[in-house]
Amino acid sequence: MKILVVGGAGYIGSHMVKWLLSCGHDVTTFDNLSKGYRDAVKGGEFIEGELGNAKQLERLFKAQSFDAVMHFASFIEVGESVREPAKYYQNNVTNTQNLLDAMVDHGVNHFIFSSTAAIFGEPQYTPIDEPHPKSPINPYGKSKLMVEQILEDYDKAYGLKSVALRYFNAAGADAEGELGERHNPETHLIPLVLQTASGRRDSISVFGNDYDTPDGTCVRDYIHVQDLCDAHMLALQKMMKSGKSDQYNLGNGQGFSVQQVIECVGEVTGCDIPVRIEARRAGDPAVLVADATRARHELGWISRLSSLEKIVETAWHWEQSFFLQ
């Protein structure tokens, strides 16, 4: 297939591009490089451009005929979304609608959307399944839910089929050590702990150790980035075969606490991890764990790299190969 990957120079998008190329697909990456890196795109055609520029999108879709579009070009920092909601609604909602409009105009009717567990807000129960009430508590989660709602309307009105994949905590790196997390600033736990192990940080902050969990620290569901890529392909194949839109939660169904992650990094790296206990952050639920039963049953998806050790090992390989050369 010929696939457009929007945001393909970022963390998950670049892994997706590499995965698609390895499967023999024709890939075009469209990215403005505000968060991604040109050297993370490991092949195919690269076009630097803005989703906010309708003329660029018109030229792109007029010049090429795509079978499907995968969207990874959202801003993802919860704290920043609270401080700068306009930035998030502009990029995550308005710019995404620009993309969808260009697809409709040019008859491209298959769309895979990177959504998030943040659409659910404070969990009413765990593990979280697809019907769980959706009440996001920050502009980031609200922006993603808005796009899911837009996709429902575009399906009914224009026949644009989509699958929204709601990630929990993407983590890890590709097995060859070519790609990994290098957000700026970095906000994800596993790379932050690994930066502490490698000496690029003095310590890791733990925000609260008095939650109602076995060790008092928050519990989260981590999913390897390559398992996410697998889910994207399975979702695309099912959508193109069935002609139906859908939504799936993606996670391992197993939670690991902040303390367990720190201990695992210590074991994998053989390094001491200095820890600073700080006050709880507003809006941090004690437990966030996915129920991915539907994805397993309907897509045939298997999280093959589900162990925390494997996730940390691949991320540590990336940390060493890229940052500690």
Q: How many structural domains in the coordinates?
A: 2
CATH architecture of the largest domain: 3-Layer(aba) Sandwich
Whole-number average pLDDT? 95
CATH top level of the largest domain is Alpha Beta
Q: Quote the distance from N terminus to C terminus.
A: 37 Å
Number of helices: 10
Strand order of the largest sheet: 3-2-1-4-5-6-10
The tally of beta strands, per DSSP, is: 13
CATH topology of the largest domain: Rossmann fold
Instruction: Report the sheet with the most strands, covering strand number, pairing sense and barrel closure.
Output: 7 strands, parallel
Structural class label: alpha/beta
Binned strand content: 15-25%
Enumerate the spans where pLDDT stays under 50 for 5 or more consecutive residues.
none
Task: Work out the radius of gyration.
Answer: 19 Å
Percent helix, as a range, is: 40-55%
String of helices and strands: EHEEHEHHEHEEHEEHEEHEEHH
CATH superfamily of the largest domain: NAD(P)-binding Rossmann-like Domain
Can you give me a brief rundown of this structure?
The protein has 325 residues and is of the alpha/beta class.
Question: Could you please describe the fold and organization of this structure?
Answer:
This protein has 325 residues and is an alpha/beta fold. It has two domains: 2-170 and 222-250, Rossmann fold (3-Layer(aba) Sandwich); 172-221 and 253-323, UDP-galactose 4-epimerase, domain 1 (Alpha-Beta Complex). Helices cover 41% and strands 18% of the residues. It has helices at residues 11-22, 54-63, 78-83, 85-105, 139-158, 189-198, 225-242, 258-269, 293-299, 308-323; strands at 2-6, 26-31, 45-48, 68-71, 110-116, 161-167, 169-171, 204-207, 219-224, 246-250, 255-257, 275-278, 287-288. The strands form three sheets. It has a seven-stranded parallel beta sheet with strand order 3-2-1-4-5-6-10, with helices on both faces. Strands 7, 9, 11 and 13 form a four-stranded mixed beta sheet that branches. The longest helix has 21 residues, at 85-105. The chain is globular and about 55 Å long. The two termini are 37 Å apart. The mean pLDDT is 95.
